Amino acid sequence: MSLTSYTKATKPFEGQKPGTSGLRKAVKVFETEHYTENFVQCILSAMSGSLTGCSLVVGGDGRYFCKKAVDIIIKMCAANGVRKLLVGQDGILSTPCVSCVIRQQQTAGGIVLTASHNPGGPDADFGIKFNIANGGPAPDAVTNKMYDISKTIVEYRICPELQCDISKIGTQEFTVDNRPFTVEVIDSVGDYVTYMKEIFDFGAIKNLLRGTNGQPLKILIDAMHGVTGPYVRRIFLEELGASLNSAVNIVPLENFGGHHPDPNLTYAADLVKAMKEGDFGFGAAFDGDGDRNMILGHKAFFVTPSDSVAVIADNTDYIPYFKKHGVKGLARSMPTGCAIDRVAEKKGVEVFEVPTGWKYFGNLMDAGRLSICGEESFGTGSNHIREKDGIWAVLAWLSILAGRNMSVEQVLLSHWGTYGRNFFTRYDYENCESAPCNKMMAALDAMCDDASLVGKELSHDGKTYNIAKIDNFAYTDPIDGSVAKKQGLRVLMSDGSRVVFRLSGTGSSGATVRMYVESYEADPSTFTKDAQDVLKPLVEIALSLANLKEYTGRQEPTVIT
Ligand code: VG1
Ligand code: CO
Question: How far does residue 96's CA lie from ligand 2's centre (Å)?
Answer without folding.
Answer: 9
